[in-house]
Amino acid sequence: MSAVPASGVRQLGRHATAIGSVLVLVAFTALWEVFSRLSFVVPDVAATLVALVDNLSDETYLRHLRATLIAVFWVFVIGVVLGGFLGLVLGLSKFARAMFEPILLAFNGMPKIVLYPLILPIFHLGYGSKIVMGVLFCVFPVLINVAAGIRDMPVVYWKLARSLDASRWQQLTAFVLPAIRRPLLTGIRLAVSLATVGVVLSEFFATKEGLGRVVLQSYSGGDYAAMVATILLLITISFVISLLLWRLEKGVR
Predict the structure, then answer these.
(1) Are 87 and 150 in contact (CB under 8 A)?
(2) What is the pLDDT of residue 6?
């Protein structure tokens, strides 16, 4: 049996992600069809796609979609900025790390949704409560990855900075930020999905607009095709953004 040429292996490697995605999609679709035959709650693929097209042509649905996307955007921005700042503080300061890291790690392991009854009376209905809840979900991946990236920096970087008599700002911009760009991108990629989860979970409970409210109303009304179509839309948006960020992260050395 002849060996596969090296060029063929490289070519296959370049398309491995696309091939894997297609295989997962095919397997997922097949399982979806099987479960749709077993439970009336799960609509078939065709009915779900029809419901999705109908939803995207409805102005009320698009208003809910805009509400969710705007909230996710602000949650993502605030979570990345706040997580990046706190990660820098923990990574650069041994005193802050010793004092706050155990508390933050313990808080990260706690189910954030249990805090929603406390957040709601303070920030009320609308964007305030779900943005705060979403930030609680997405801030920790950025914080933890940035702090870990700084701690894992080679010692030679710090020696070089000191030998060049670099200021604190120069150390941050010329040494620290370039060294942690990959863990930072990892945290950002994880934050996208968690921002969406936090916002949508909040919309399940006490908000007037958003796709979480649409899912809950569809379930209560027995419109399972519309419910699954909305969930599919959320998964697709998060997956595409995460995949793009993963490819960017993969290209960073």
Answers:
(1) yes
(2) 55
CA distance 143 to 187: 8
Residue 97: exposed, middle, or buried by beta-carbon count in 10 A (0-12, 13-18, 19+)? Answer: middle
Element (H, E) at 86: helix 59-92
Distances (CA, A) of 130 to 95, 135, 164, 233: 33, 8, 46, 19
- Interior CA angle at 130 toward 233 and 74, to 5°? 75
pLDDT at 251 over 90: no
Helix (H) or strand (E) holding 176: none
The token pair at 166 is: 């670099």
Burial tier of 201 (Cβ tally within 10 Å: 0-12, 13-18, 19+): middle
Residues 6+ apart with CB under 8 A from 58: none
Q: What is the pLDDT of residues 87-141, one digit of tens each?
A: 999 988 888 888 888 888 888 877 877 777 777 777 766 667 888 888 999 999 9
Count H helices, E strands: the chain?
A: 13, 0
Please report, for residues 15, 24, 95, the alpha-carbon distance to residue 10 in angstroms, rounded to integers and kept in the order given: 9, 22, 48
What's the pLDDT at 126? Answer: 62
Residue 177, classified by CB atoms within 10 Å of its CB into exposed (0-12), middle (13-18) or buried (19+), is middle
Q: Residue 153: enclosing H or E segment and its boundaries?
A: none
Write out the two tokens for 225.
């095709």
Please say whether the beta carbons of 140 and 108 come within 8 A: yes
Mean pLDDT of the chain: 84
Contact 141, 194 (CB under 8 A): yes
